[in-house]
Design goal:
- The chain has about 230 residues and is mainly α.
- Helices cover about 40% and strands about 5% of the residues.
- The protein contains 7 helices and 2 strands.
- Helix 4 crosses helix 5.
- The protein is elongated.
Amino acid sequence: MSDKKELTDVDGVGETKAEALREAGFETVEDLQSASQERIAETEGIGKALAARIKADVGGLEVEEEVEEEFVEEEEEEVEEEVAEVVSAVELSDKTPELDDETRDALKKRAAQNNPSFKRQDHHKKKRVKADSWRKLRGQNSKRRKNIKGKGAEVNVGYRTPSKARGLHPSGFDEILVHRPDELDDVNPETQAVRIGGGVGGRKRERIEERALDEGIRVLNPTHVKEEE
């Protein structure tokens, strides 16, 4: 019986490979022990060389020198592919659309406006009330509604941004909120960028990002970059 407890304890299996094995039905090390090498090799992203190495680690098989060399070559190829993907993702994160002069000027004016943040009146009096959950002022005696100095800014038409820049991300892209990979079907990578919904899980987010990378669509909140916008 193998002393391995987790899939990631098996030789050559990292978190990515472990996830691929789980999706193929190998939940435990015992599942790998009972499965044939050919069955493991059929798992996406594993291959014959790694399957032989896995069986050697959990089942006592000996890995031939040729198989070991093949596994090393596969690992090198995977590293090269991962590096190429990271480079492409970084280049895509700086992608901007072609904008006309009017729209470009509107974005600059909007960035320079320095509008105040509109806080909800009396938000500090109740913990459950969030400061950024602005509501229209209706109180008859509201000092802010009467525009008394020092009581905070109130939303009005004078703070409005240039019409050409409204709804645009600072990069100039139209921002599209997505929750599933198939929602990328109607996205135009030349004029639109996507933001992945906050409630999207890790696996689905990864599939969305992979497809966006393949199709040249910029993701505004990718996993490897902290939210700054």
